[in-house]
Amino acid sequence: MALNDIMKPALVASHFRAACSNCSLRELCLPIDLSDDEVHRLEMLSYHKSSFSTGDYLYRPGDPFRSLYAIRSGSFKTRILHEDGREQVTGFLMSGEIIGLDAISTDAHACEAVAMETSEVCELPFAKLEALSREIPSLQRHLHKIMSREIVRDQGIMLLLGSMRAEERLAAFLLNLSQRNASHGISPTQITLRMSRVEIGSYLGLKLETVSRAFSHFHEDGLIRVKARAIEILALPRLREMMGKS
Amino acid sequence: MALNDIMKPALVASHFRAACSNCSLRELCLPIDLSDDEVHRLEMLSYHKSSFSTGDYLYRPGDPFRSLYAIRSGSFKTRILHEDGREQVTGFLMSGEIIGLDAISTDAHACEAVAMETSEVCELPFAKLEALSREIPSLQRHLHKIMSREIVRDQGIMLLLGSMRAEERLAAFLLNLSQRNASHGISPTQITLRMSRVEIGSYLGLKLETVSRAFSHFHEDGLIRVKARAIEILALPRLREMMGKS
DNA sequence: GAATTGGCTTGATATATGTCAAAATAGCCC
DNA sequence: GGGCTATTTTGACATATATCAAGCCAATTC
Predict the structure, then answer these.
(1) Which of A38, A120, B161, B184 suits a disulfide with A72, CB 3.0-4.6 Å?
(2) Which residues on chain A are in Cβ contact (under 8 Å) with B158?
(3) Strands, DSSP E only, in B19-152?
(4) How many Å apart are CA B9 and CA B174, to the nearest integer?
(5) Which of B87, B109, B145, B154 to mutate to test the interface with A (most CBs of A within 10 A)?
């Protein structure tokens, strides 16, 4: 494995690219080093792709679980629905991220996933993914890391919801989008929101009016420019400070 | 596998018991059906046990990740600490539950785990657990379910923190403890809290005074009896209703 | 181009929860 | 058992966010 690393880095890299341009499994395959054969099998796994328009469901609560999905382009929101009508947006997922992990526990989807724009996903049949990860330890470890990362992410949101004030929450939210933009090679200061104020509010445990007022306040303070769903961050460092004190 | 199920249930059950009384991996091994050999290898995996007194750390943020832990007796709280001094209790874990999943993502613990009473854990070296789950598909699937269940649990808390009021949160909390008591064969109406009002507050995103007032209010309504940390649920069905409307 | 629609902003007010402070209670050590 | 400390309860008051209600803006339709 290490040998592979040293002896043919270019070749391995080119295989990553091949696999990733083909199946778009940036998230799944990029950080692992695989042999030619392994890359090929990973490609085979995920040849089924599908497209979604704004508002389309990727899955709904109760749908039987068969696959995870790697978002190839576009974005989705996930939302849980409680019997009493309460609901909570639990995540906004974008290109390169894996969606559907919650369903493994019960073999049925616990939440719903809705496309927020025209989007494409690669389907990853979970049984096959498990079978392959039994044979490729680095893939196995990677899958575990993806799941663990989701746990850490959720716990971060628990911290946000449990102990931050409205403006701190919104600052954290914007900074998170900024960072994810950056990791996609997109401008970290030009943010195009794909979701409404209501959805942001649901995610952050706030009402839409509070979200709107927080945006306005940031604007007054010269932290951001707001033009409907186009947000420009004018002072990233000061926005970071917002989270601490405010 | 199904054959195994049908033909020698008693035998299989006895192996569960053997493995579980020995390594206390109720959570890990109980629901899976394994061959004699597989049970034996699972036992071998987890022979290292350790004990903790109230306040002892199982791990701290930044500690290198090597193992998961199955709680054999007692209970722990997990807590994340933010740079700015903010902190959030992310879970109260009891006997039979697996702790440490957050650390897989970065190979270092993201949160801290503190014993809330005298407790014992089985250490599960993760590399070995992965190796074994490569060979035993039902163990692999089970490990994935445990991780997914943690994701679902965290998202439930996000719903609680994002959209429930103080008394609804506390009702949900008590009902959760009640249910976990029941699943351990303990009375679902006699609850002994192992944590302070401050810790409950941190977990539920409330201040201790609010938690205390909610307890008092439940008491006035005849829902519970409160004697410091001994809670008796007098009206489980009405407590369930509390969550919906209130 | 007018009209309709849905989303967003802003203001006035209500309310749930936080904050500060004191008293009561429980647990603990000598 | 008595005194000590930490925890919990309770009260009075402050405040952040929700709620209710208009008005505004941008996009879409006719």
Answers:
(1) A120
(2) 80, 88, 90, 154, 157-158, 161
(3) 49-52, 57-59, 67-73, 75-81, 87-94, 98-99, 112-115, 119-125
(4) 36
(5) B154
- Measured CA to CA, the distance from residue A165 to residue B129 in angstroms comes to 41
Residue B13 clears pLDDT 70, i.e. is over it: no
Phi and psi based region of residue A74 (left: phi greater than 0; alpha: psi -120 to 50; beta: remaining): left
Report CB contact under 8 Å: B243, A148.
Answer: no
pLDDT of res. A49: 87
Q: Distance between CA atoms of A215 and A223, rounded to whole angstroms?
A: 9
Closest CA–CA distance from residue B197 to any residue of chain A (Å): 15
Beta-carbon pairs below 8 A across chains A and B: 148
Comparing CB atoms, the residue among B90, B104, B134 nearest residue A158 is B90
DSSP helix/strand/coil, B231: strand
Q: Which two tokens stand for residue A188?
A: 């970290």
**pLDDT tens readout for residues A151-206:** 999 999 999 999 999 999 999 999 999 999 999 999 999 999 999 999 999 999 99
Q: Which of B80, B159, B204 sits opposite A159 (nearest CB)?
A: B80
A98, A27 in Cβ contact below 8 A? yes
Q: Are A205 and B90 within 8 A, CB to CB?
A: no
Report pLDDT digits (tens) over B157-169: 999 999 999 999 9
Starting at the edge strand found earlier in the chain, the sheet holding B98-99 runs B49-52, B119-125, B67-73, B98-99
Query: Does the C-beta of B189 come within 7 A of strand D?
Result: no
3-class DSSP assignment, residue A112: strand
Q: Where are the alpha helices (DSSP H) in A36-136?
A: 36-45, 126-135
Strands A224-227, A67-73: pairing kind: unpaired
Full-model pTM: 0.89
Spatial contact of A81 and A116, defined as CB atoms under 8 Å apart? no
Residue B103: list chain A partners with CB under 8 A. 148
Separation in Å, CA of A159 to nearest CA in chain B: 5
Report which of B114, B107, B68, B109 is spatially closest to residue B91, judged by C-alpha positions. B114
Write out chain A residues lying below 8 Å of B101, CB-based: 147-148, 151
What pLDDT sits at residue B177? 97
Q: What is the DSSP string of B88-125?
A: EEEEEEETT-EE-GGGGGTTB-SSEEEESSSEEEEEEE
Q: In Å, what is the separation between the CA of B55 and the C1' of C28?
A: 17
